[in-house]
Amino acid sequence: MKKLLLPALLFTVMSTSAQTSTWHVSATYPVKGDGKWDYIAVSPVTQQLYVAHGTEVNILDKATGAEAGVIPHTTGVHGIAFAVPFGKGFTSNGKLNTVTVFDLHNNQVQGEIPVGGNPDAILFEPFSDKVITCNGASKDLSIINPNTQKVVATVPLQARPETAVSDGKGRLFVNLEDKSRIAVVNMATFKVEKEWPLGKGEAPTGLAIDTVHHRLFAGCDNKLMIVLDEHDGRTIATLPIGDGCDGVAFDAAGQLVFASNGEGNLSVYHQETADKYKLVAHVPTAKGAKTLTVDPLTHTVFLPVADRQAAGADGKAAIAPGTFRVLAVSK
């Protein structure tokens, strides 16, 4: 999770096809509560939206936005992961230094697991059958056995992990935010094998992977998205995006790469080939809409956001009550 501290101008690099794109905000789903927000995810089991929101996870019908449930007592929640083979879901509770376990079918809480400091992004890694938290404060990864619901390993890192993706074949790629590098973790040994620089990219946040063409997409804080070869870390392309990116997603069916930018827009690139990318849309969203998920079935992009009040004497802008919502972006 990356905080957007200052307003920024929209980047102006835009192709003709981007200017005429039909991508737009097609629906807005109001959500109760005024807490901070972070990641959003679509359950592959129930096809519902899970929205990390302050002290709870809001569950919504992805087609209508209707409230479908809540996972409570997840203070400082950042992310949600789905361990489908085990029938369990997991939330990373940043202020509690814990992970909440819930049933994937009925959302009933099954337990809570102590992990590292300030767990942020969380994912299920299919090669090892483990759940992984990226712990920003302790600068490490917690490796959780979903069956026993216990931490079975801790992977120390040399910097703060922002998020991670898996190639499904034994390697985990981790954005190191304050080092501007990507760590490669062997999921058989739970050890860091190497680190790769990000070229011109600085302070990486969002990260996505194309496992067919073996490409990594790292959204960076200096308004760039870096495309790397997952085999050797070579920089393939350096793509302009908006400011305040905190989420990147890849839609394999459409060969589209999305970057959600907190300044208030969504950058959409089409993968022409493994090495060539074309900007096809720069979609207005809302200021603060910095994280996202793409639904692999409908290809809709969902982004949580709320409005802010005027900044106080301390320079902080409180969330405007009653404005939290999820935006649906589609063609």
Automatic annotation (TrEMBL):
Which SUPFAM superfamilies does the record match to this protein?
C-terminal (heme d1) domain of cytochrome cd1-nitrite reductase (SSF51004)
Q: Where is the signal peptide?
A: 1-18
Record's keyword terms, sorted: Signal
The protein's matches in InterPro entries, at most eight in alphabetical order, are given as: Haem_d1_sf (IPR011048), Host-pathogen_enzymatic-act (IPR051200), WD40/YVTN_repeat-like_dom_sf (IPR015943)
Keyword Signal assigned to the entry: answer is yes
Q: What PANTHER family is this protein classified in?
A: DIHYDRO-HEME D1 DEHYDROGENASE, PROTEIN NIRF
Please give the name of this protein: YncE family protein
Q: What is the lineage of its organism?
A: Bacteria, Pseudomonadati, Bacteroidota, Chitinophagia, Chitinophagales
